[in-house]
Fold each of these.
Amino acid sequence: MPLFFKISLFFFYFFFVISSSPLEYNHPLESLALFELTQVTNIVKNSYFPLNVTFHYVGLNEPNKQLVLSWLSSTHHPALPREAIVITRIDQKTHEIIVDLSSVSILSDKIYNGHGYPMLTLQEQTAADELPLSYPPFISSIKKRRLKLKEVVCQGFAVGWYGEKRKSTNRMVKVMCYYLDGTVNLYMRPIEGITITVLLDQMTIASYIDRLIVPVPKANGTDYMGSKRRRSSHESNSIKIVQPDGPSFTLDNGNTVWWGDWKFHVAYDMRAGMIISLASIFDAEKEEFRSVMYRGFVSEVFVPYIDLTEEWYYRTYFDAGEYGFGLCAVELEASKDCPENAKFIDGYFISQDGTPGKMPNVICIFERYAGDIMWRHTELAIPGKVIRKVRPEVSLVVRMVSTVGNYDYITDYEFKQSGTIKVTVGLTGLLEVRGSIYTHNDQIKEEVYGTLIAENTLGAYHDHFFTYHLDLDIDGHENSFVKNNLKTRRVVNKSSPRKSYWAVVSETAETESDARIQLGSSRGALEMVVVNPNKKTEVGNEIGYCLIPGGSATNPLLSDDDYPQIRGGFTKYNVWVTPYNKSEKWAGGLYTDQSHGDDTLAMWSLRDREIKNKDIVLWYTFGVHHVPKQEDFPIMPTLSTGFELKPTNFFQHNPVL
Amino acid sequence: MPLFFKISLFFFYFFFVISSSPLEYNHPLESLALFELTQVTNIVKNSYFPLNVTFHYVGLNEPNKQLVLSWLSSTHHPALPREAIVITRIDQKTHEIIVDLSSVSILSDKIYNGHGYPMLTLQEQTAADELPLSYPPFISSIKKRRLKLKEVVCQGFAVGWYGEKRKSTNRMVKVMCYYLDGTVNLYMRPIEGITITVLLDQMTIASYIDRLIVPVPKANGTDYMGSKRRRSSHESNSIKIVQPDGPSFTLDNGNTVWWGDWKFHVAYDMRAGMIISLASIFDAEKEEFRSVMYRGFVSEVFVPYIDLTEEWYYRTYFDAGEYGFGLCAVELEASKDCPENAKFIDGYFISQDGTPGKMPNVICIFERYAGDIMWRHTELAIPGKVIRKVRPEVSLVVRMVSTVGNYDYITDYEFKQSGTIKVTVGLTGLLEVRGSIYTHNDQIKEEVYGTLIAENTLGAYHDHFFTYHLDLDIDGHENSFVKNNLKTRRVVNKSSPRKSYWAVVSETAETESDARIQLGSSRGALEMVVVNPNKKTEVGNEIGYCLIPGGSATNPLLSDDDYPQIRGGFTKYNVWVTPYNKSEKWAGGLYTDQSHGDDTLAMWSLRDREIKNKDIVLWYTFGVHHVPKQEDFPIMPTLSTGFELKPTNFFQHNPVL
């Protein structure tokens, strides 16, 4: 490091120690605080001064798992190293920098030369979106279409990869433009036929094609802001959740949540969004917290569109790796996005230039009381007695909403008193539609890759695959993955009046290949359990948690050799299990934008590592094939899907008595 | 009819006209009122006087669909015939009697000579349960086990059919006994080894076998009534739903519910339980109610246990057909079974001797506000604007709980403003466990057909299959069933940089065999839609409702040739479609107890009738294979599963703007 950098770092350090009052962080997995983010980006910027540094990602480089676990089990909670991982572009190169906050120094700085690029920044997307508006060929395209330029809004999209050999400097987006003029629902008014390619590092339009003119769908009927009251709707009386004594959970200043028997940590990350860490549940009999999940987060959201037309074929998004599931998180509205009894957490992100920004109310936490029943029984069999005991269900929800352009993803973790963690993703927001010449189905004779959901409006077919990284630590760190197959057996020797029955045939996965599961015909007849093979219940059952798929454990429909599917290879199986490896976080690879699929979960898993009685990570992918319907226009009713993690002989008995 | 019967009927009629003040019923599908039930059973009893008549079922013989529909569409709502269907045993024969309430006469009276018997009555079950307690061999068995007779409680179970050729008079149950002595949770304390067969018509013990002595599991830890507060649990603050201006729905005195755009009728039936009829939704643009479902109800609940041991092999219950899903419905507790804002409906059933009984608060209706989001979007793409619009989800739930012995089934219909009907079944209550010599898994070397969930307690493997009868009338009565297959296609001629895509290949079922679907590998890549082929949206899409399976569309694991599976043949496919036929209501046959499987949905469907553009009925079966866990002991946390019926191009656009 040149001397003058060292000096400036020195001054910087003093500046910081004097001027900022760092909050004492009390959790080693707590997201970087505002002052830490500033510190990190200053260190990097100073180190490269006077070069221009663009920041694509800054997040906590979490301490080694072993350190965190000993921190957790110690009574005095020793301070752990605070490090940041920074992904930048400097001089058209991708840098992966580790910054140590206690020594205020750069620990490592690697240039990444492989395929793929870092997450897009909000600023470069905005800049790219504005380019066409002053680009004469575009202006003339707009004129030719008799549209008003001031009503045009553009949006850049990741371009994917289709086998091209590109130079590493070719970071680009394709910009698609939309028309307002009477609506705020721009996505329902695409200006089709134009392909604008923008080089991001250079921030220039690299290619411009105006191929054909297609009618822009009309504004009428697209607006979702209006409150046209419909004659038929009875005025709904107000309905509220009230907790006169306030919520029952505690949220400490390090974002650890205590609720009922549960304890867990909530963090915000620019890429993953919400991260749940160190979820554990108090066992009253053992008088201790027992671990369930070390970390759980959205690793990737793969959204391939199915439209093969020139302006659409490339649209195969990786919403976490390309846009940042956390970066796209939005402020939650009290009493609307979350009920009246919710508490909110802020998040902090880094702008392209290194300035930290606050995301107010980006996560909410609330107790959910939906009128459900936790357990009940009415007993009428005892003569002279009527026994009834009912426990209403109250659970705790942690929510983030990520709006990646048109789509709004509602991501919930619901903690139940029974020990279950229910994960739900709700899909709402706006469809990505293609403008079309057609106003009626009868006119359509070609393949249009979508549903005509309004005049001139094709709701494009697409898929959503949500891949969760679930580092389960079931009552300890060494776990195994067990498949309990329910198998039909024939009765032999007429030993019973029956002819058949079923048995549970258990199989413990030895290596990664044993744990790849495509859910399909075996559904319902397969239990998937992460167990701790080193502990048993008193009657000798393996202590575990079961993965219970929700309604839509969808498998890919694209061919294995298709480029988007190579990049999204991790969706091939619904379940994968890998040995814990701190670097294996992002199922689509660390550098997903324009990736070639050489750093995905599917590739890591080829090593077929041992996973029996190891610290293992469960990856679960579910999703929907979305054939749009007219009801999805102009804004989609929420479609929910997800999965559950359910205690399976984890407790000696029902923990909520 | 002998003269003296006619005379007594005449007097009876006068008696009734004078003494009772019949409520003017205003809905042709309204359950029989108390006075009507009295009238019906009196007519039957008088007609057979002095013979003893036992009543197994009395319910509304609903008017022909065409009549109901014209009633609905007429403005003056002409009175429709009120008829009852009565199933009785008279002189050891099963009678199927239709009673007309307006003419106070028996319209038809058929003796049923086929296989199977009517539903068991509560009274005969109670009588059978008491027999062992005064039966000397049983008393000596209890003594031999050093148990106290006064702590013994017995329960009769349907015996199934295993190929035997029985006389039609052999109505029987097998009685299983349990031990209280320190707990109310009798089901956790089975007294194993004894098989007691009771002939019901004779109410005598036909056979008694005491085969072996097995330890009775201990009482300690089985009680769910106690409120042992656990040290770790933070005291939960109270949480309530409040509607200061009251609920937004209207429930008229004929049990028609009006809520938002929805209108539907709720009825109680001794066999089906809750029945939803004539569900329709107001279309503000068309200014009319558009039909969605003519009738929806639980047709059968098949619960085969998997245990082959002598005392267990026969346990393959049909909870609706044998015990009556409605007859087993229980009183719902305000603020526990249903939230604070619920309204309740009573039900009326018939005792064995013809006396009507009231089931108070058997159904509840409430608005559900769970903190969910109906739809939302945050729009940041418009320069200088931040647009956010969020609509919280409020839905309407109609609930009944049926406690069939040990199990409690929570059945919900949730009506959403978006037009979706979500059907959920929650399973809770108590497991059926087998007493066992084992106190630890390591001791077990034989097949035990269950999980050791506590000492001496095997939670027996079993399945639950819920079969719903869904007479959908999508915007009219003539409907078709369409399978939309999402099929992978290869890109040809390098017409796109991609190599594959998917297309929607639609197939309309012509006959019943085209519509039998075993959900499995095709999951997620198959849409199942009931459409009205005679109507289209403005842009030309077929108007429809989609069946969306929930998490567990389970298929049977028993062999096709196994007796329980022959009787439960309707579970072989998750989906069946039949042409509407008033007599085809009960998937397991009208006479399910000891049935031979010759009157099931599977048999009716063999006729392979035409179903295209017909009045059709959709049958959907889902379920769970239950491998019990220690957490299910001593009372099970609710396990929920179900399906959705979702508008699919039914509306021109999202109906909730």
Note: The helical segments of chain A are 3-19, 34-48, 65-73, 122-130, 136-144, 563-567, 601-604.
Amino acid sequence: MGLMHVFEIIGTVAFAISGAMVGISKEMDLFGTIFLAITTAVGGGVFRDLIIGITPPTAFVNPYFCVISIVSALIVFIFYNKLNKLNNIIQISDAIGLGAFTAIGCNVAINHNFTGTFIIVSLGLFTGVGGGILRDVFAQEIPFVFTKEIYAVASILGAITLIYARKIFDGYTASYICFFTTFIIRVLSIKCGLHLPKVRSEKEKSKFTL
Amino acid sequence: MGLMHVFEIIGTVAFAISGAMVGISKEMDLFGTIFLAITTAVGGGVFRDLIIGITPPTAFVNPYFCVISIVSALIVFIFYNKLNKLNNIIQISDAIGLGAFTAIGCNVAINHNFTGTFIIVSLGLFTGVGGGILRDVFAQEIPFVFTKEIYAVASILGAITLIYARKIFDGYTASYICFFTTFIIRVLSIKCGLHLPKVRSEKEKSKFTL
Amino acid sequence: MGLMHVFEIIGTVAFAISGAMVGISKEMDLFGTIFLAITTAVGGGVFRDLIIGITPPTAFVNPYFCVISIVSALIVFIFYNKLNKLNNIIQISDAIGLGAFTAIGCNVAINHNFTGTFIIVSLGLFTGVGGGILRDVFAQEIPFVFTKEIYAVASILGAITLIYARKIFDGYTASYICFFTTFIIRVLSIKCGLHLPKVRSEKEKSKFTL
């Protein structure tokens, strides 16, 4: 899985960068920034592994992607004030990560002999968006993925595509179809400003309480 | 467990509705709203299963309750502005869910041969209130269960009742005693406006910092 | 491990007190206050156990430290308005807890035959700071450990020291070296007001969004 591995690294760097930038914008210190970068990059995979009983999760056994995250965070920490210009590159890299992580999450499920559509899609989704959710919880924000643009839906559609593609193609090809489906939907949603529907409240926003 | 299954479904619907309503009130989009509904409905059970090593958690293997949650969320999404009138029904259904989930959580613990009071009560409690805690964390609110009314305490008392009831009755009967204990305490606390004590600060609210 | 056990109890009390005080300052009720105390005291250990597949986590099987946490929370609840004077004692106890929990977390990893530096340090760190992170997430604060002073770094340095000390000394001695390293770094950072670096933004604090 040569090319997919490259995508995974690009995605890890992009996720780590987004974690580090959120950390810095929330006035976290060097440790907080690095921790948030690691959490964003590997948090989804850790959650996925716990769900299916892989203990310790891969990220702890093989800290390869944690090291990538730490280096990425350090670079962001040093060059923070110059990174705004790279916003486009970061968004594209993030979309690459979303696609690669989704494909990898689905494959982990399949390699562990799970056959249900629901669990395969769930594990693809968690791997893709779990780290970002944790990032936002730690940064005291409502998770981005719950409020804006087509993000999780790109991951879900990519995962469903993978399941169907495997009925026609080999697993290797299906992974790339999943990757490109997720990636393209995500990039299109950014370029075209696509959003999922929201409810418009009739009255002033009345907060629901139990 | 025929009737308890009905209670479980009612509870799932009520929990999913509360998740969806919180999501919408926080301006989440369709995905966020559905995700929060699922989290509220099955999150406690997922956490309970992870605690005792059931991987993958039941909710992922059998997405039955997730589907119920999704349908509930969609209905809330469409009819949001008419649901305020149903506040009473939602509160009663939520109390039914709290009772059913508590009884189920305790039974899962007992069926896995745990005998300690602490772990049985903990698993009943987590199943009952865990989803709501996750809902509030994702919605950027201090968990409701930590601040208002008799909610967790109803679940704890129900769970303790179950343990003692099993010494006299069969497991089936004990489950219903647990259910009704939790349900009645919860409903009474709403009707009578009962709250747990809080500390009144002498000075102005001084925020504690380490 | 006689003395370390004493340190563990002191640390549990200190962590529970910090959880209870944060809970009260956030206007949580008695249940919320106790729950936050328990979470702060045992949450890190629970997460550590889940990571390495110890299910159910020790804290659920043996509720010894939960009981200590509950008693500590009750005392805080009753004497809250008199505790501000004890701030110094609480800080020192907290540092004792950080040291003891770090050493214990590393030893759990080693006793489960993990040999990698990364996972040993991670488990020491999670045991030391995980409860405090959960406390702050539930209290709707950006985790303290991400923003202020030398806290996590003390734990990390202590854990690294333990790994190297074990190459020279027995495990018992190495645990104490880890404990004192963590403790002293933490106390020095409080006394000297040491902080990790943060990024100073050139422009006004511009919030990063994906």
Note: Residues 29 and 49 of chain C are 29 Å apart (CA to CA).
Amino acid sequence: MINQQSCSSINSQLVERFGSFTREEFMDRAKSFHGCISPGVLVGGIMVDSAMELLPQGTLFDVICETRSCLPDAVQILTPCTIGNGWLRILDFGRYAVSLYDKHQGDGFRVFLDPAKLDHWDEIKTWFLKLKLKHDQDNVRLKEQILTAGKEICTIQPIHVKSGFRTNRSKGIINVCSICGEAYPAKDGLICLGCQQELPFRIRN
Amino acid sequence: MINQQSCSSINSQLVERFGSFTREEFMDRAKSFHGCISPGVLVGGIMVDSAMELLPQGTLFDVICETRSCLPDAVQILTPCTIGNGWLRILDFGRYAVSLYDKHQGDGFRVFLDPAKLDHWDEIKTWFLKLKLKHDQDNVRLKEQILTAGKEICTIQPIHVKSGFRTNRSKGIINVCSICGEAYPAKDGLICLGCQQELPFRIRN
């Protein structure tokens, strides 16, 4: 748990809320959904909350996540956007960035964890840039720093998401693959994408 | 809601349980997490449950989903595996298939919705192969058919997931991109993947 006293020396307040959740409620959700209160889901929660705050009240929004790590779960805990309902999309550029934008108009906000803002937060910098082994991290201090820094370590950019990306989602006509016998989007080719490449699994006898 | 009476004519029982949830509990979860009880998340729940049943009790498992549509949310509702904790991975082949496998040994089961088993389920076939417009679907009948058919419309294959896929997950060394100033995995190249391509959004002034 976070020790509030040990943060008082830097004369700052801990993040109190994540969207409609209190800090404790968000942590409970992180634990049950994500499996643990990881630094990534914690800083992700702050990032998602920062973008939500900037959207006009009642905006129907979609989300782009630029990493597969942790951040998508903060989105799925705090917003109605999930990977399966398609309102959350992951473009895996390996950047710790999330964008929330009006699904009709395309205007929104991109928030990223900014390496240039980490000089006063040694434990966050060390974790984010992997400057020491995970085993040598001080996890309690890391989470304290994240909850104390809050959005101070993020950079927020107003963005516009192009209309083609917002609207072009149909799978189109469905074919049955002549090799595996499964259904797939005809636009993928004469056979399905699964049969076009080497798979990471094999059928056991 | 599902009308149990109208299914009695085909002399079969509705699916009662999804993992540790009753049917009603699963539907409530689908509504709150996925946003609605879509046919995809319903059949997805049956598929995930079928694979879980076959894994030895207590197996620590990971998941591969071969589509982004609906199915990943059934996984996230019924298992501890999420997109952000990395225990669920999506290989978007556009096939309605899910694999659950022992994360250490690699053995598990792949379940797919089988077009060859849909001849007695006209509404499921019509929806799955997109044989008529969404607007013309009979959604109540579709969900009744899904809950009556249960795993009868699925094919299950024992699989082995290759060790390289199971273990090779590290981002490796982290760089700061000289163009955008953001952190990214050094193995992606001299600049980050985001700066290597055209993005679906632009920064607003």
Note: Chain A has two domains: 5-167, 172-205.
Amino acid sequence: MVTSHDVARLAGVSQATVSRALRDDPKVALDTKERVRSAAITLGYSPNPIGRALAVGRSTRVGLVVTDLENQFYSYVISPMHRELEKHGYELLLITESSEQAPVADLVAGAGLCGVVLATTTLDSVLPVRLADRGIPFVYFNRTTPNVPADSVTVDPAPGLEKLVDDLVRLGHTRVGAVFGPVNTSTGEEREQALRHILDDQGLTLARKHVRRGPFEFGTGRDAMQELLDLDDPPTVVICGNDVVALGALNTAVERGVRVPEEVSIVGFDDLPTSAWPLVRLTTVAYDLEAMSRQAARLLVERVESGESVEAGGVHTARFDTSYVPRATLGRVEG
Amino acid sequence: MVTSHDVARLAGVSQATVSRALRDDPKVALDTKERVRSAAITLGYSPNPIGRALAVGRSTRVGLVVTDLENQFYSYVISPMHRELEKHGYELLLITESSEQAPVADLVAGAGLCGVVLATTTLDSVLPVRLADRGIPFVYFNRTTPNVPADSVTVDPAPGLEKLVDDLVRLGHTRVGAVFGPVNTSTGEEREQALRHILDDQGLTLARKHVRRGPFEFGTGRDAMQELLDLDDPPTVVICGNDVVALGALNTAVERGVRVPEEVSIVGFDDLPTSAWPLVRLTTVAYDLEAMSRQAARLLVERVESGESVEAGGVHTARFDTSYVPRATLGRVEG
């Protein structure tokens, strides 16, 4: 982004003089003012980039911030979100937040975005605070953080998990294991609490030794499954925080020659296209990810176009229902 | 992007007056000039946004343009490219070119990008022409187009395909089938020509009825495999344009209960992480996609920082070698 430093350099004056000249301070000489203004125009500098976008009402660029693009989950979010935004005359820019050092908030402001969808925000992320400070509208996607209120699109894991646990009981599972998501995400925390609560209602317990935890990644499921299968009394079913984790677990079982579901059952959450492959047939919990992605786009567009602040009008929340998708990786306990 | 129309509207003058005022045309009244300049500064308008970025030398935003983000291939490109750019002090913005109507070239200019990596350009795309016209540096990634010269990072399919065809001969395959990529991409065309040439050298032919063609997508392999398996004399091996297509073909075989490789062999190209899953074990052709992604980032950074035009100094090309990765989906012809 062009800064007042750049203008100062080009005009050959101090940064303070740039500020004074652009406020039309009478103490600045006329030819200095002229030089500063001409430099500002050459560089396309505006003292207030957000004000600029709002004043013109012309920025139609929406940013989607994600951390882990290697996670195939996001590739199914981007296309519907992109199409929905396009329908409303907006474009989508993807911003990857690969490191804590990356000044993503500056990047968002610098790229002249009219709004942002946050898809991988951790509970301790500073990005929501920074965006709120700068007055950039944003929507939480599949995540929330408690401290900064904003519109959100989330999933209610309970209905799908309830049907799943009914099936666990019916199939005779008593040694239940789980690979939960990270504790610093609302999604990980919420799915874990819902599952624990529902298992409890059905009189099933999660033994501590049968629980693993980690990022929503393939490697988390792979490593957790190695450890669980090495136990003297491995769980009869492993419920994973999402499908990508479950795919990691499933591949470990296949690699070790452990039959699924005869020797161990595996369950996911998300119902990604890969999970429905004839080669995979993962039992999982589903929701309408495409509709959710479109809804996030619509909430953001409404927020941008109304110009209404969260403080003034409150937040809009959309919560999506879940369903249980029985396939081939959950079966009856043998022996 | 802020345009001279916006400035005209805010200043309450015509667009022509904006142009004249900013050139300091003596025919424009002093107070009108003042009003136009003030509006330009408020809006951050510059008569020449490219000149602005070059003059300041401060834009460090690189765009990656891809069409089909649901294709998992790209998710493995983005992370290494992002990390390499970050090392050089640049950020990555992802731009999805979802429709022909999308004014991607305008978006690229409007977002103030210093350069672009083109990853899904078709041979007839206008984007390279538009970028060249605007003087925005770009690099072709895994693609080229013949008309607009630029730096490129591509793959040489021949070494890997030669070893693959050696193995086809050794394993007794004579009815060879193929699912090629789209004819309007250099990648599709080049892989097809290389394979045809190498098969020919080994005395193998591709019967027309055993050849299918389509976009580099899962559905292409799925549908092609249905048709090929319905033939009276299906091919004994199906060579696919990439791994995603091969995964579609493999899942169709599994769904139909056709044993791979006992009844039909399937081969891919790319060696995506999914292809190495114990559940998949796809025989394929590999190259160093991560190194390629990093190299594209480096070529672009060099081009941006040197400021050297393609016309003045010629193009830089990096070509990556391929190798053959035998796994479980290619076997001996039975019977």
Note: Confidence is low (pLDDT under 50) at residues 49-57 of chain A.
